Amino acid sequence: MCSLPLVFRNINTKKLTHNYIYRSLVYSSIHYDGKSDPGPLFFNEEVQSLLKLLTRIDYNKVFRKRKLGTKLLTKPDYQFMTDEQLKESINRARKKADVLLQIPPVVKVKEINPTILSKDSALKGLLTSKIVFTDITFGVQNADRIIVVRETDGTLQEADWQLRKRINQTYFPENGRLLKPPTMFQDTYLENLLDREEHEFVLDRACIQFDPDEPEYQRISSITYQHINEKNLFHLLRSTRHFGSLVFFLVWNKNIDNLLLDLIETSNVNEAAQLIALYSKIHNTEFDGDTVLEKVESFTKSASNKKGALELAIQAYKEVAKSKEQLEKGVNAAHGITEC
Amino acid sequence: MAKQLLNVTKIFQKLTINARRPVISPLLKWEDQTTNNAAVITTNSTRNTNYFKKLPADKLWKGITSVSNAGKKRGRGKTISKRNIKDLNKGQVIGVGKANMVWPGLSAPIIRGKELVQQQKLPEDPDREQKLIEMRNAMGISKRLKLSPIERGWTGSKMPGRSIGPPDPVGDETFDDFDTRVLELKVVWNMKGSFGRTRRNAAIVVTGNKNGLAGFAMGRAQEPGNALRKAKNRAAQKLVHIKLFKNHTVCHHFYTQFGATKIFVWQKPEGHGLKCHRAIKTICEVIGIKDLYAKVEGSTNVNHVMKAFFLGLSRQKSPQEMAEDQGLHLVELCEESYKFPNVIASPSVCKKESETKRDESFDYDQYCFGGKVVLKKKPLPPFYSRYDSYLKYLAKFDKKKNQREVKMNMLTEHGEIRSFLTDKYPECRQYYRPKKEVEEEET
């Protein structure tokens, strides 16, 4: 008999610990909620092509072997192919890669104020719970579906977006999406995942669970991007669909110094130029200079937050380039090839 | 004491010598004296020839413990079993007994070194009786050879499947990494005009270094051990190199045949294990193949299975050879990599679509099996599927079929088993057994 109160106490402590785990990350979430909408700029063709170029597609990484969640590895399928068939299957794979690398859209956070359709105060107190009416006609888009709620006080109004999402998921479930967001997106677990460099997994799951205009999605993605930027872990997202939105996020928030430094240090100067072109396109500024390096230098002078480090990197790159040129000259002279 | 014994023996001697004449035994005389009765003449008849005196001990022993061939044909001696035969003479030596005496000239030498051995009594051995009884009990019960599970073959202590160690070194060449396994050990008979039927043992063994080098051979000899040794050393002289895929399986599926034995062999991923005929499994272990599935159709004669399998292994092709043979690219498509075409081998000149024959198959499996199709039987439903009890079980289980998943979801969501109804019905909670330590503190 005396064990009963103990049981309850146990449960209580459990519940307490469960709720009290929440601890904020070092990063604050940054939403696209300013006055200007990033959508039109993001969907601009030039921006899209620049983002794709910066993604630096490596088919070996795009089509690397992944775990499918099956108990056993699937049996590889061997086929004999003619030249044409092989070419065709490679083309098919390229098209598949385009789908796999589609950048998740960057849009403003949604603000839906449900419109009130009618107020029937006569119905007040008739029911103890809300009633949701859903149009489940086949072929209607989730966003366009009519979902209305009769409140207990008699008001008939459109459902707010949280309710819409739940109802849509109930009637037309999307594979992998849960009714309640998984605990991995809570701060402590998220921090743990980021420390384990599981950024791609976090972003993939966030893409499934949330819509791009949801504040929760923007919170998770912005924290992940900031973590990557701070730890210089750009290689984790290269050749994945998320690199484009990472770059867009950094450019939008004028925080591209780390990425630029990374590009110059790895001698990807063309990509650095593309990044600066993207910057000038989004922020409507011009960096003068004819060559790639000059543009980078002018960016460093006018808009950079890490002037010292960037200037040093540019200097080092110049020296390396110079010594390379000299070496080539020497090799050519040794081979007896003289410049005309 | 000694004098008394001497007297008794003398009396017995007299008895035997004067057996034919009726003589009153001295014991009777003594009885007469004690009872003080008038002397009565009594006769004591003795027979000096009997069955046990006519024959020597060994013949008697043989008569009891065995039956003649002719007798066996007539069905005699059926009750004789080795379990019942106990030689009680064993362990009984003249001069050795309960009292641990030293009898010079009987149980000990008369002179040891330069000293004369004295008759003396040594301390008694308390376990002697026990040992004798144990020996008698153990008689007639032959113990089977017990092998450790690692050493066992396919069946118990029989030779097939057992390891007989590496082949003997030839000069300086040693076979240290090799292991030899027996596949067959049988008795074979040969009929000759001069000798009649002669019996020999024939052994088939495989030897290999578990790294793609293996050989097999047969050896015959009078003794099984010799046959095994001969076969083992001969196998070491007939090694062949066998191509392996990533050092764990065969290079590709294949079909192979020897006589009436047909084998279909499948390449398998790591961790699959060896699922095949026991002879094939043993051969694979010796070669170093770890993952494979094989199906034997037709005869399962071990000799032929072995030969067919070795034949198939030695006929394996490299991907380049296959591509060259077909004149087509060999491409791997993997579900895990979204079916991205991974070209494994390309021919020097690739065929065009128009050049291929109308009935030519592009199917890789069909090419590997040489156009043979494996018989795939439909699996029978399990025996219990028609039982009423099973249907009842299914009906009962239907209620809880999703319970585990729901439970796990609740645990991940709330950290305990609770749902939206828990607040309404707080009494319906998961019972947690209180921890012992907490209880102690409370009391």
UniProtKB/TrEMBL annotation, chain A:
<dbReference type="Pfam" id="PF10245">
    <property type="entry name" value="MRP-S22"/>
</dbReference>
<dbReference type="GO" id="GO:0005763">
    <property type="term" value="C:mitochondrial small ribosomal subunit"/>
</dbReference>
<protein>
    <submittedName>
        <fullName>28S ribosomal protein S22, mitochondrial</fullName>
    </submittedName>
</protein>
<keyword id="KW-0687">Ribonucleoprotein</keyword>
<dbReference type="InterPro" id="IPR019374">
    <property type="entry name" value="Ribosomal_mS22"/>
</dbReference>
<keyword id="KW-0689">Ribosomal protein</keyword>
<dbReference type="GO" id="GO:0003735">
    <property type="term" value="F:structural constituent of ribosome"/>
</dbReference>
From TrEMBL, chain B:
<dbReference type="GO" id="GO:0005743">
    <property type="term" value="C:mitochondrial inner membrane"/>
</dbReference>
<dbReference type="InterPro" id="IPR014721">
    <property type="entry name" value="Ribsml_uS5_D2-typ_fold_subgr"/>
</dbReference>
<protein>
    <recommendedName>
        <fullName>Small ribosomal subunit protein uS5m</fullName>
    </recommendedName>
</protein>
<keyword id="KW-0687">Ribonucleoprotein</keyword>
<feature type="domain" description="S5 DRBM">
    <location>
        <begin position="178"/>
        <end position="242"/>
    </location>
</feature>
<comment type="similarity">
    <text>Belongs to the universal ribosomal protein uS5 family.</text>
</comment>
<dbReference type="InterPro" id="IPR020568">
    <property type="entry name" value="Ribosomal_Su5_D2-typ_SF"/>
</dbReference>
<dbReference type="InterPro" id="IPR005324">
    <property type="entry name" value="Ribosomal_uS5_C"/>
</dbReference>
<keyword id="KW-0496">Mitochondrion</keyword>
<dbReference type="GO" id="GO:0003723">
    <property type="term" value="F:RNA binding"/>
</dbReference>
<dbReference type="InterPro" id="IPR013810">
    <property type="entry name" value="Ribosomal_uS5_N"/>
</dbReference>
<keyword id="KW-0689">Ribosomal protein</keyword>
<dbReference type="Pfam" id="PF21251">
    <property type="entry name" value="Ribosomal_uS5m_N"/>
</dbReference>
<dbReference type="GO" id="GO:0006412">
    <property type="term" value="P:translation"/>
</dbReference>
<dbReference type="Pfam" id="PF03719">
    <property type="entry name" value="Ribosomal_S5_C"/>
</dbReference>
<dbReference type="GO" id="GO:0005763">
    <property type="term" value="C:mitochondrial small ribosomal subunit"/>
</dbReference>
<dbReference type="Pfam" id="PF00333">
    <property type="entry name" value="Ribosomal_S5"/>
</dbReference>
<dbReference type="InterPro" id="IPR048584">
    <property type="entry name" value="Ribosomal_uS5m_N"/>
</dbReference>
<dbReference type="InterPro" id="IPR000851">
    <property type="entry name" value="Ribosomal_uS5"/>
</dbReference>
<dbReference type="GO" id="GO:0003735">
    <property type="term" value="F:structural constituent of ribosome"/>
</dbReference>
<comment type="subunit">
    <text>Component of the mitochondrial ribosome small subunit (28S) which comprises a 12S rRNA and about 30 distinct proteins.</text>
</comment>
